[in-house]
Structures are given as C-alpha cells and as structure tokens.
Design brief:
The complex is a heterodimer of chains A (112) and B (150).
Chain A lengths: L1 E7 L2 E10 L3 H15 L4 E12 L1 H16 L3 E5 L3 H9 L7 E3 L2 H6 L3
Parallel strand pairs in A: 2-3, 3-4, 4-5
Antiparallel strand pairs in A: 1-2
Helix pairs in contact in A: 1-2
Chain B lengths: L6 E7 L2 H17 L4 H22 L7 E8 L3 E7 L26 H8 L2 E7 L2 E9 L3 H9 L1
Antiparallel strand pairs in B: 1-2, 2-3, 3-5, 4-5
Helix pairs in contact in B: 1-2, 2-3
Classes of the chains: A alpha/beta (112), B alpha+beta (150).
C-alpha cells in the first residue's frame, strides 16, 4: 500500500493506493492518521480511488481512523470509493457511518 | 495444481505470508474453475478471512502449529476447508458486527464476510483446533463448460 498526503484549503487529503489488508497496509494507514492528528491536522479525507482491495482488517483500520479522529474533535471523510470497497461498506452497514464523497472539491468544502 | 484434479491440499505455516498465499491459491483455483470476477473476489476474500482466523486467532502465529487448506471440486460445488491447531473457536463469542453496539468495533467482521460471500459456512471447533468448511456453488455457464470439457 502507498500513501501520500497533501493540503487543500486546510484539509489534509490522504491519497491511498493498493491494498489495505492485515499487516503492512493497515499499519501504514494507522500510522499516517495518527501522525496527522498529532500534528494538529484534524480535517482529513481518505482518498480511496486507487484502493483496489480491502479485507476485514482494512475495514477495521478505516473504523479506527474514523473514531480516533472523532475522539480528537476532528473529522474524517472518505472519497471516491471503488465498487469493491463501496460494496463492502454497504454489506457491513458502515456506509451509513462514514461521510462518503465522490467529488474532491465538494468533499473539501463540506468541512465546517 | 490443474483443475483436472478433484482435490488439492496444502500445509502452511502460521504466518502472515500464509494469509496472502491462501488468498492467491483461492484466486487461481476459482479462476480456473470459471467463476465470475465477482465470485472470484468473494471466494478469495472468504479464504483470506478464514486464513487470518486460523493464523491469528487459532494458531496465534505459533511456529509449531500448521494451517491446512484444501480445495475440492465436485460437480456442483467448490468446497474449501481450512483447519488450524488452536484451542478451538468459541462459537458463542462471535458477535454480530451489524448490531449497533458493534458497528464501530475494529474487528469481528471476518466470519460475517465469509457468510456473506459463500453459500455455506460450517465451523467445527474442537480442543485440537477449528475446522472451517466453506462451499460455493458452481453457477455460471463458463464453469459448466469447463466441467464438461474435462
């Protein structure tokens, strides 16, 4: 899994690509989000457009990122889900938990 | 393994590499059997989740404990069996991940996903380990064509 971050109008966009699975992928995502929060970046968008696979551990990491951010008075949203990831979030009923966006500009604007 | 063989089994170490290896084997075999792309993804993910349970929760990465994985193809089904050598899963402690109180938990979705993706999932725990059997029915015409050609 590869991750890079960029800033757009005070929002941190985390561009993820590859697989978010048990092991390296999950750890990379976890470390990235925790590092951002530690540095005071509390408006976070996970861009999952290039995430082609996610397992239950990866789903758990998305949940963990969401709750960790929320517990620190931040906000984390998901952007551009692939069909596979979208289907998994529907099956697990997490689609209603996450704020999911399709358009980056709209996603950035949606933060208060 | 070729798809002309009816059954193949593997004995694997209790490592993260086993999880990836099990998934890759499932993908290859499901592809060879002519399942659709969606079904291949479902079978592969179900096997991955089962392997995660066997390696982490069953054998707890113990180097002296093995995971056995088998694929059996019958005329109507792909039957996948994964066994670990752990203390045996407690079926009474499997939470419903869709319950509101569990929705934001970071784990506990593996068996739910297996049941979502496979037609049959049977779990048989014992004090010498857990046997997990999953069945996917062969539906598509492509799978039937391959079967007829063998």
């Amino acid at each position: 899994m590869k991750i890079s971050t960029r800033q757009v109008d005070g929002v941190t966009i985390v561009d993820c690509s590859g697989r978010i699975t048990l092991g390296e992928g999950s750890v990379t995502l976890r470390d990235t989000v925790r590092d951002l929060l530690a540095k005071g970046n509390k408006k976070i968008i996970l861009n999952l457009a290039d995430v082609n696979y996610i397992d239950s551990s990866g789903i758990g990491e998305l949940v963990s990122a969401f709750t960790t951010t929320k517990n620190q008075n931040g906000e984390l949203k998901l952007l551009k889900l692939t069909k596979k990831v979208n289907d998994l979030l529907q099956i697990t009923k997490l689609y209603t938990v996450f704020d999911v966006k399709d358009d980056e500009t709209e996603a950035v604007k949606s933060f208060k | 393994m070729g798809i002309t063989e009816q059954r193949v089994s593997y004995t694997l170490d209790s490592t993260l590499q086993t999880v990836d290896s099990a998934e890759e084997k499932a993908t290859r075999i499901a592809t060879e059997l002519g399942f659709s792309d969606d079904e291949i993804m479902q079978i592969s993910m179900a096997v991955r989740e089962a392997a995660v349970n066997a390696v982490l929760h069953g054998n707890a990465y113990a180097p002296d404990k093995k995971v056995t994985l088998s694929f059996e193809r019958t005329s109507e089904n792909l039957v996948i069996t994964i066994c670990d050598q752990g203390a045996g899963m407690d079926l009474g402690r499997i939470p419903n991940p869709l319950a509101p109180e569990n929705l934001l938990k970071t784990s506990g979705r593996g068996i739910f996903l297996m049941r979502s993706f496979m037609d049959v999932v049977e779990i048989r725990p014992s004090h010498t380990g857990t046997e997990l059997k999953m069945i996917k029915h062969v539906h598509g015409p492509s799978a039937g064509d391959k079967e007829a050609s063998q």
